[in-house]
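Recap quiz, item 2
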Amino acid sequence: EPEVTQTPSHQVTQMGQEVILRCVPISNHLYFYWYRQILGQKVEFLVSFYNNEISEKSEIFDDQFSVERPDGSNFTLKIRSTKLEDSAMYFCASRPTGGPTDTQYFGPGTRLTVL
Amino acid sequence: DAKTTQPNSMESNEEEPVHLPCNHSTISGTDYIHWYRQLPSQGPEYVIHGLTSNVNNRMASLAIAEDRKSSTLILHRATLRDAAVYYCILRESSTPLVFGKGTRLSVIA
């Protein structure tokens, strides 16, 4: 069964450094998402991406964040200058179409630790 | 998105049925009811969804009240692998999923 993959599984970085989290969505899917989950808290939406542009973003997704689909298969989340509070699990998700019955498929996540 | 209310936690014995309730009294006519679960240290995983009629799939059943103000996810025989946080989410369109705190299900051997 096709699945969403994410790399790395764990990233440790120093505060102020840039990080890029990578995702390979399921190949025929059209909608892509990033969510994050701070330890012990709810899963929070960050950004959705469709047709090579951001379709929706949350208040969390400020100027420090950016997303890109550089080559038609990878989907990346960049955090320009990491802060301690960016430490979280980051989940990538994809879905085939935009309907309300659509299933979102989530990756296993990248644990980001900012020191 | 309309709000859902779920118990914080539930416990079940292995191989017993589990009924996970969800209240959504402000549901609109076009909201679909989705259930996802999150196993420990994993990403969320789709379980089932429905609109008005009860639904069955290989993972679970979804029973929807006639007035649609509540629903129940039914795991017919809980296994240790079903220990997870279960999320009930209402969805009208292609908007992103909005996760609440969900119900943490513990399964006792």
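Chain A is about 0% helix and 50% strand.
Chain A touches chain B at residues 4, 31, 33, 35, 42-45, 48, 56, 91, 93, 98-109 (CB under 8 Å).
End of item.
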